[in-house]
Amino acid sequence: MLKKVFPIWIVMVLILLWATNSFGCVGRILYVGALDTPEDKVISQLLVLLINERTGTTVKIRYFDNNDQLYGALQQNDEDKRVDIIVENTEDALAILKKPKPGDLDQTYKQVKELYESELGLIWLNPFGFTHASGNAQQSVSATLVRRDVLTNYPLLPRVLNKLAGAITDETYTTLTGKVQAGEKPKNVSKDFLRAKKFI
Which domains occur in the chain, in start order? Predict the structure, then answer.
């Protein structure tokens, strides 16, 4: 009997070790960076709750006043200053890259995705699904961005976060941010949405 039980025990231990190492959950905290706005607050909470509920990883949000501070934190490795994940839209990304809009939304997304990885070491995941007009009335799409070095320790993170891909329509985005603007807590608004979608 021991000969049969022992291999099963070994397999269970190996599976546990693999799962732990895949997400790097032990002793590591992920930091989501966001601007201090209703829109960023609700979307960043979606990321925090989804990662935490799906992987058990501790995730915290760091808020910033502007993009310069936010992108500065993306270059940090210090535990007290760094940011691992952000949400960005293609219109602002073009401004940061100082590039003109190449064409339609799909072309723009492909361009910023390639340039962000090669120049900034940031990986664009799949778009959320909503489009919105910035101040100059240009439409853009938004997505989660993850530091490339973070994916070394969290290789399955894109699979988790891409559950939000295509899940947030323009109407849903307006509803979620509207609730936060009306005074509801971003965490509660985000949790209700994720539960309704059966993501958590």
Answer: 28-196 (3.40.190.10)
